[in-house]
């Protein structure tokens, strides 16, 4: 572990597609979706295998600072960099990078997400360390992790691999040719068959100074605002509120001249929908009909379904259903056909429009 290697865990999202488990007050990174620890705790423990605990920083919204401290009591308050309002990942990551750079101008940072599942932790450790070591030599290159796709998926962005850059320790490093937003099914099928495309996990590893130079090059207004905040934290709310809400992918990563992708099988899921959660439990079915369930449940003539009941003593019973997902919380029940759970966020949007904020 090198003192100038840092991991930045981005933990400010709301995970609306995992409603009703993921809520505005307690989004999915603070939930136990898979395993006996929250997704944030799992991410933190993975990170501790790569860098020292003092070199792990959390970027989150100010209203999640206390819950972050609850789940990560080892983290010092100075390691939690909070944003006053949600402006997507470009402002959030840029602010965190600038603050880390302020205390360590030699910093090399891996920016990762707090709400993903990584089953192959050794591969994760190896690929992040490979990127760290590569940047020690070539500081003007940004590295990203390409997830080897297992099927055509329309819910992920893709990275097209270009020319092979080099091969190190059984890892092949390619120049990233282009980034592609979530495709339709036909396009996703084509990407999968070519073998040239990997899923974009949104993990980026870079030299902090180089990142800030690229920010200045491609987003001068954001760069100037971040510099003012770092110089005087009293400017934070006033300046931050004026930032555009933009992802770091489109602001820097899709525009920078030198970005390399390292394809790897991490046993990865972004846990972005209830369908992706269901897939995680495919090998853990509780009966002979392909069903997975938790809580007080009775399934009659029900097949290939997932039923998660958190509603205490209230029974969920199903009859004659197939390929269904049921998720129950104390105040809401979601019933959705498998393959349609990407649309769950529409329910959250509708609740907001109807001002039923107590249910969001």
From TrEMBL:
<dbReference type="Pfam" id="PF22640">
    <property type="entry name" value="ManC_GMP_beta-helix"/>
</dbReference>
<dbReference type="InterPro" id="IPR029044">
    <property type="entry name" value="Nucleotide-diphossugar_trans"/>
</dbReference>
<dbReference type="Pfam" id="PF00483">
    <property type="entry name" value="NTP_transferase"/>
</dbReference>
<keyword id="KW-0808">Transferase</keyword>
<dbReference type="GO" id="GO:0004475">
    <property type="term" value="F:mannose-1-phosphate guanylyltransferase (GTP) activity"/>
</dbReference>
<dbReference type="GO" id="GO:0009298">
    <property type="term" value="P:GDP-mannose biosynthetic process"/>
</dbReference>
<keyword id="KW-0548">Nucleotidyltransferase</keyword>
<dbReference type="InterPro" id="IPR054566">
    <property type="entry name" value="ManC/GMP-like_b-helix"/>
</dbReference>
<dbReference type="InterPro" id="IPR049577">
    <property type="entry name" value="GMPP_N"/>
</dbReference>
<dbReference type="InterPro" id="IPR005835">
    <property type="entry name" value="NTP_transferase_dom"/>
</dbReference>
<feature type="domain" description="MannoseP isomerase/GMP-like beta-helix">
    <location>
        <begin position="299"/>
        <end position="351"/>
    </location>
</feature>
<dbReference type="InterPro" id="IPR051161">
    <property type="entry name" value="Mannose-6P_isomerase_type2"/>
</dbReference>
<protein>
    <submittedName>
        <fullName>Mannose-1-phosphate guanylyltransferase</fullName>
    </submittedName>
</protein>
<feature type="domain" description="Nucleotidyl transferase">
    <location>
        <begin position="8"/>
        <end position="285"/>
    </location>
</feature>
